Amino acid sequence: MFDRLRSLLSEGAASGRAAPSQALSTAFLLMELARADFEIAEVERQRVRVLLAQHFSLESAAVDQLMRDAEAEVEHAVSLHDYLKTLNADLDAAGKRRLIEMLWQVAYADSRLDKYEEQLLRKLADLLNIPEKDFIGAKLGVLENLMPTQP
Predict the structure, then answer these.
(1) pLDDT (tens digit, 9 = 90+) per residue, 33-48?
(2) Could you list the mean pLDDT of each consecutive 10-residue stretch along the chain, which spans 151 residues?
(3) Which phi-psi region, left, alpha or beta, contains residue 102 (left: φ > 0; alpha: ψ -120 to 50)?
(4) How far is Cα 108 from Cα 140, in angstroms, rounded to an integer?
(5) How far is CA 59 from CA 5, 14, 85, 143, in A?
(6) What is the three-class DSSP state of 12?
(7) Which long-range contacts (CB under 8 A, 24 or more apart) does 76-80 make?
(8) CA-to-CA distance for 99 and 109, rounded, in angstroms?
(9) What is the pTM of this model?
């Protein structure tokens, strides 16, 4: 399990400061979105945990470490550039659609969409070159899953 995390975190290493891995970049964006409204609700934190565990097939201890690393990055980062550069290089259109779905899930984890969360989501979609139809489609898919089914 730790070998898998170590591998994910070291992807894309270069001379000097290593480029962030896809896993760290994804975790970074999820945590950045969770704190966009100036507080990270526990339900948002738990949603990030579940998404990272599922998406990267990580066990609990590896997810905990990835989240600690991402939160440390969020606290010290002055730009989204390195993380977005990694994701733009590593993800195809389907991967970017999955990422925006994950971001919408974090935004709605507390059952409400804050204006700062939506603003950041729009910015990220633009910087990741995600078409508007995919952006809105992901939002509607997340909202549909939140609503109770009617008989």
Answers:
(1) 998 888 888 899 999 9
(2) 50 51 93 88 91 92 92 87 93 95 94 91 96 94 77 52
(3) alpha
(4) 11
(5) 9, 27, 27, 28
(6) coil
(7) 77/28, 80/29, 80/32, 80/124, 80/127
(8) 15
(9) 0.83
